[in-house]
Write a structure and sequence with these properties.
Keywords: Cytoplasm, Hydrolase, Leucine-rich repeat, Manganese, Membrane, Metal-binding, Nucleus, Phosphoprotein, Protein phosphatase, Repeat. One of its GO terms (molecular function) is metal ion binding. It is an enzyme of class 3 (hydrolase). The chain contains 26 helices and 58 strands. It is an alpha/beta fold. Helix 13 (787-804) packs across helix 14 (810-824). It is globular. The longest helix has 18 residues, at 787-804.
Length: 1313
Amino acid sequence: MKRNGSRGCVTRKTRFGSRERDWLKGDAQRGCVCLYGGTVDPQPPASGPQASSTLQADLRLVLCSTTTTVEELCAQREVEGLYLQLHGDLLRWHSHSDIECPVNADQQERTLLTGVFSVRKGKTQLHKWAERQVLLCGTCLIVASVKDSLTGKMHILPLVGGKVEEVKRRQHCLMFSSAGPQAQTYFVNFDTLADYQRWHRQASKMVSQTISLVDLSCYSLEEVPEYLSYSQDLTHLNLRHNFMSLQGPGGLLNLPRFSQLKSLNLSHNRLGVFPESVCEILTLTELNLSCNGMNTVPAQIGNLQSLQTLSLDGNQLNFLPEELGGLAQLSSLGLSFNNFPHIPGVLDRLSGMDRLAMAGNRVETLELGILARMSHLKNIDLRLNGLRWVKSEALEAVKQVTQLDLRDNHLATLDLSSICSLEILHCQRNQLRALTLSGFTLRTLHASSNRLTTVNIYPVPNQLTQMDLSRNLLEYLPDWVCDSRKVEVLDVTHNFLSELPARLLSSLSLRKLLAGNNRLQRLPDLLDHVPLEVLDLQHNKLGELPESLFYKALNLKYLNVSANALEIIPPSSQSEESLSTLQELYLTGNKLNENCAALLVGHQNLRVLHMAYNQLLSFPASKLSKLELLEELNLSGNKLKTIPSTVSSCKRLHTLIAHSNHISVFPEILNLPEIKLVDLSCNELTEILLPDSLTATLHELDLTGNSSLLLEHKTLNLFSHITTLKLDQKPAMTAGDSLGSSTLWNHGYSEMSGQRNKLCVSVLAVDRFGDSVEAAYGVFDGDRNEEVPRLLQCTMGDVLSEELLHSNVDSVYMSNTFLTSHRKLGMAGQKLGASALLCYIHHEPSELGSYFSLTVANVGSCQAVLCRDGQPLPLSKVFSLEQSTEEMDRVKLSKAIITEDNKVSGVTCCSRLLGCSYLSPWVLPKPWVRTEPLCSQDDFLILGNRALFEKVSYQEAVCTVQAVRDPRAAAKKLCTLAQSYGCRDNVGAVVVSLHIGEDSCTCETPHANTGTEPRGPPPTPLPVTAPPGDPAMPSSSSGIASEFNSETSASEMGSEAGSTASDEHPSGPTVRPERRCSLHPAATLFLFQRQPSCTTFSSNQSDNGLDSDDEAPLEGVISNGSKLEVEVDIHCCAFQIRSGPAASPKDHNLDKTRSDYPNGKMRRQNSVVVSATNGCLLAVCGREISDLKKSPSTSSLFGKKLSNGSVVAPEDSHNLIEVAVEAPKKKSGYFTAPAQQDPEDQLVVPPSLEQDVREQLRGQSTEIPTHEEVVKRRGPPEAKIPQPELEYLMRFRLQNLFATFPFTWKEGQVMKQ
């Protein structure tokens, strides 16, 4: 039976009584859980969890607290364990020592149809219709007990052998009935004819299936359903991933009643013991008992004389009974991932066995004599055993073995010449230095990732068709390679080959040759026509290619010669007519000029052309027009000034990448019918000439790095449909940056989808994290899902900020950040997962002599590399089963099934990920954490995902970034190189340029001036004391194309800092404020930052809140004489110093203005922002978000994806930032105030308000100076106000602003009355 409960079992009134309410109100840590199956109501202890009475026997509400353990609940209920229910029908056994997250990952794949429809149970009219969630899953109809949800009790109706009939009395209604004497019936009324037909068609297929085959896997079953007991002809039963029990009417002890059963799958049921009742089903031919924690196999296994396939993988077995040797028909035996120290001797008696799987055991020595005695054994799998020796004591030949898998062991030498019938050998990732084989029947050889210098095969393997010798130490190819007559695929990449034999390229059988990453300086000439189709010669030292390459290799379709020294390419033919079939050509990273483009005309079938990072000054227009089949063109990193207009003749072009050039005119590509991606970043674009309409296929446009580009409002509206639009934000400066922090680091990043349809890589980049002299960067790679990387991008920065409040130990706050982010993934993290890399640059503010440190944490395959003294320093650890021996041992110890492609359960090759909860405990979210102190020898930091570092080595990545000054252009180049080297997956890179050293410190020791009148201190931000322990929050958790640095130059700050008068005359020497650098900031500094320049809308170009029909002024519209402006100030109020002294008494009143914020935190306001910026109070009433959404200039910007293709949660703050970024820039207005101080901007008491102010201060001892006194005291308008007067009057203005002017303070907003 299926154990499920329903939240509707108890009514709302009776679910919680007075006792329950009193219990919950007593302590915030108290709660309740629902337990099923109890009938007794024990009295609760005085201080422990309590149990309330219930009205039904199957549901009990138990009161408990956050400290209540499972042991206490079990002891109270007098049971051995508990069942955990999650989302209605996901159940797992919870014992005292075995607690694990429940999952049901496979059910989603089995769901065929789902929807919410009107449902009625039974054939009588007494039952009422109700809307319920209905699923057609596997071979069953599932009806939920509540609407729009799968929580609660699930009604399962098996359809195999049942009926699906049309109900003529109702429109679009079907009747579903199960088979058997106790058949049940459900009526489902569909909304549309299409739904009706779709469900009828699918359900009819299930009904027509014979009852002989039943699949009940992943249904959380404890017993076999009762209706199956009437099926005497059942032959195949799949009960995988359930919780089957031995006892009970439907337990495994009653399985022998299925007398015709041939196939039984009981894997992943945690049985603990071998169910002996299975041995009574004498008709079984296939039995699967994998992953059940069994220690022994009973002797009764010998009864199954018809058994042909037996799977016992993933258990705790270390021996087999002698009775197993009597199974004469057993042909396949699975013993992988057990504890066998050697091949069991009982297998010698299995004369019919031809396949033995013993991967992941503890076999260290392989005796070939044992294999010789197994006369029928052909296929042996001994992966992941820790094999060290393969011995052949006698000269006896092993004639029957044809396939041998020895991957991922510790073999140093391997001599298999005695296995004379060997056809397929896998010996990758060992430590082989010598390999000797018999070549009589050898067909396939995989020996990559070893230390081979030569391979001895005798006789010549004339049957050999595929050979992989990549990542070895070969300096030459053996002679027998050229003598082999049938070699079709040869992979010798990543070796030390200096030449290739001429006979190899002239082979009449070779179709695919991979010889990249060697030391080749030339290729031999082709003597005759060859069938070569794929040729990869990247990362060599080739100066030229054979002249006859293209017209001798007429079948050549793929050629990659990137990263060589080519100055010219051979012609496509000897005559004007070309027979070339070349489709993909990669020429990146050579020395080609524009003359080579003329030689490409003959390749008229060319679909992909990469000529990035060459020496092209132009591309001939007439030549480009002839490449009509071109689909992807990459011309990045050249010296092009324009893209020929003839590119419009390439009607199939869908990708144009031309970043890092000198292009000033936007190419005519936006009207191409299939264009999808255009990357023209890091160029010199000034304007874009657009057609009247854009094609709907364009989904990504990158225009970053074009400093002179100005987009009109019409252009932004035309781009509104583009999914990913990347634009620059005009950089700004703040007071903190004016002291040197802006020079500490800056970043650039790039994300490319490659040939995938979606971008599954996301980037986190925050240059100003925490106290404005910290930074956080991250890369998240979801492999084939985009949901988890986007969630991590949006949340992980905030989680890190919260964890920093609780601990300053790197391993603690980083581990907690990853674990909390893992938890926040919710249901998305049950089945999906992602690799994650997080880098945090920080320092200890309390130590003036301290410098910055870099803390790196990662799970999965994303990596970080630091360039120190020009050399790469890897900082992360790759958690891949192929690259981490420790992780491989851990996963093996937990009895996970590792498939032949080294993936855990065939899902992922990573042993640590965020997400993929259903793979626990094999895949964990625990990160690797490392902290590295930064020094002046550290130049930059590179972050990348797996695809990047698979194609680009650490050393090449460092050399690439060193050659490019701009971090954004460097990141672009890394991704472009990875794609040109053959990467077809998503690739992402972040480059952080570091300028940290002793010369970065700009601190000055405080000293006194000798003059009687100071010239005035440098402009200083208004100091506001922050409480100790306040969080340091990032400005954004997402990597937006234009990072919001919230910077203001010193001149802008000086123009906006108000000059005030004081009631005290300065006398004696004046102490100049201590100037502090960003390395050693003042502990009490609190900075509000603003986004100038680009956030001002022009009144004649945008909807600024004052339409032509409106007569009354609107909020957020500021009228300044003849000018009309809308100010959108974005204040990053979340930045706070985490430590500092307590507030001074004179700042007490100032702190009252922030008393509405709990725990001293500042709330980010969307429509109205109040901020103390650069010494003055700004009260800016922006437009409501609803108004922004209605604006034609901004409505298309809401709810869009961010520039990196990632979707941020629909928060108004994010939308406001996007609107400000993508608004047209204005060259005049409030934010472009003159650098010098304007007397009109000084914060003094106006003469008209002097009387009101004096009345307010009547009775106080302090007096405010008049306007004339201030002017007389401070001298000419150009003079600076002394610092004490400035601070005093600012405090006065903060205290009395709302009493003087018609504004009120309410929940952090300034609202006009």
